[in-house]
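Re: [ENG-882] Designed sequences occasionally contain unexpected residues at chain ends

Forwarding the minimal case from QA. C-alpha cells:
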C-alpha cells in the first residue's frame, strides 16, 4: 500500500444504518419504542444513529429527507425484523438497510509519492472501471459499509475530485 489516502467529502451513498434503542426489557417494548419514534417523526432526537459498523457515526446530515427515508423503510418491513438484541450491552438495536446517507469516503492509494498519487487519482477518474480495483469505504470505518458503488456515486466522486484533486489526497496517518 502507498502513503496516501483519497478522501471525498459529502457523498450520498446507500448504507445500512443502526441505532441503539433505550429499551432493555423485551422485544415488544423495543417495538413500541420504534413505533413511538415513527409516530412523533422525530427519530433522531435523543438517539445516536450511525452507519452500521462505524464507531464515529459516519453520517454528515440528519435532515427531514433522511428521516423520511428511514421511516419509509421501517414501515415497508415488519419492525420486529429490524430489531436485534445486543447480548454484550443488554440493549436492542434497530437496523435499517439500504438508506441513502450523506457521508465521507476514503480509499487507500497505491502511490508512494505525492506526484504519483495525483497521477493515480487522475487515472482513476479517467477510467471508471478501475474503481473496482480499490477498497472504497466510509471514512474512519473499519468495514466495507457501502451497499452499492453505482455510476451515480462514481460520477459524484469524479466531479468532487475534478474540482481540486490535490485537496482530496491526504498523507496516511
Amino acid at each position: 500500500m502507498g502513503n496516501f489516502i483519497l478522501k471525498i467529502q459529502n457523498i450520498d451513498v446507500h448504507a445500512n444504518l443502526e441505532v441503539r434503542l433505550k429499551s432493555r426489557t423485551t422485544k415488544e417494548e423495543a417495538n413500541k419504542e420504534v413505533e413511538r419514534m415513527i409516530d412523533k417523526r422525530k427519530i433522531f432526537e435523543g438517539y445516536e444513529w450511525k452507519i452500521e459498523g462505524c464507531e464515529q457515526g459516519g453520517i454528515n446530515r440528519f435532515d427531514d429527507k433522511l428521516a423520511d427515508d428511514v421511516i419509509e423503510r421501517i414501515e415497508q418491513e415488519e419492525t420486529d425484523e429490524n430489531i436485534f438484541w445486543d447480548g454484550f450491552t443488554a440493549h436492542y438495536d434497530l437496523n435499517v438497510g439500504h438508506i441513502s446517507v450523506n457521508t465521507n469516503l476514503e480509499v487507500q492509494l497505491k502511490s508512494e509519492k505525492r506526484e504519483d498519487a495525483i497521477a493515480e487519482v487522475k487515472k482513476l477518474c479517467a477510467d471508471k472501471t478501475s474503481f473496482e480495483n480499490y477498497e472504497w469505504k466510509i471514512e474512519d470505518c473499519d468495514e466495507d459499509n457501502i451497499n452499492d458503488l453505482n455510476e451515480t456515486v462514481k460520477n459524484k466522486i469524479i466531479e468532487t475530485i475534478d474540482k481540486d484533486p490535490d485537496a482530496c489526497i491526504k498523507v496516511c496517518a
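QA comment: On inspection the terminal residues look reasonable. The two ends are 13 Å apart (CA to CA). Proposing we downgrade this to a documentation issue.
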